[in-house]
Specification:
heterodimer; B: about 120 residues; mainly alpha; about 80% helix
Amino acid sequence: MQYLENKYFLIALTFVVFMATKYIQKRTGIALLNPILLTIAIIIGFLMCTDISYETYSEGGEYIDFWLKPAVVALGVPLYQQLESIRKQLLPILIAELAGCIVGISSVVFVAEILGGTREVILSLASKSVTTPIAMEITETLGGIPPLTAAVVVCTGIFGGMTGFKMMKMSRVKSPIAQGLSMGTAAHAVGTSAAMDHGYRYGAFSSLGLTLNGLFTALLTPIILDLMGYSI
Amino acid sequence: MIQQCAVLFSFLAAGELIVWLTGIPLPSSIIGMILLTVSLKAGIVKLEWVDKISDFLSKNLGFFFVPAGVGLMKCLGLINAQWLPIIGASVVSTFLIIAITGWTHQTIRHITTSRNNAISRK
């Protein structure tokens, strides 16, 4: 059984499971069978059954994790290709981002409070809509639990990516630019990947949304929490 | 592909350098992304130097989140105890962000374009 802890095996397993779940979703067309979500669930199930620790999995997983940073840099390309329309709409974009950011932070804190969240959990949720490195940094400075933030960030991303376009249909967000922005603002890079599937232009504005929301969230979270009565 | 990687990783490394020099509380990847956008715009970097790797990475972004998601198993106990506030708050907030960001953008855009049209009609 020792072989199952081999990092190359664990990397191969992650690729194969992702490929298989992608194929399943393509064949069935069921949105709930999200490949990222399914792969995470299957890997966790596998690790629990074989009694392999997360730390052991990480020895392989970190090589996949490693590509997150270059992948975010790569979003500079779609962003560049939409610079002209961004420049034309700079003011509406900035105001929309600011509104989304403030509503996002305050609503997650408010609802978590009502539903009986502990202080540590609430602080860990505040930055849940931005990309993992920013979110974990914020949680650390606030005194929350960074691993919880990482998990919630990924789940928020998957949830936003899966349901985002349906939510926008319900709430009548129609323009492609607004849709792209919303996806990136609410569901960071995972939402951006869903937006990319929808179209390159959506993906570009989603990259912009994730960048601006990342910046605003890093700047505003401590202030908003302070106003809501959390002394940090 | 080597050239593509060379350019992309140079921008990431530049982002890392800026973080290291200034201690700015932003991830190096976001700084690298902004630098790449600016350099493409300024013509320092040609699109065909990075388009292939960028296309591959940005289309498969979701996959790279799998290990971080598996990290969820580390806090299963906490999630079990606090699942209602965690899930409830995240779902409600995600919906609100999507609706508010989209609405605000659409509304302001609507106001500014109709005003511009009114001006150009005069």
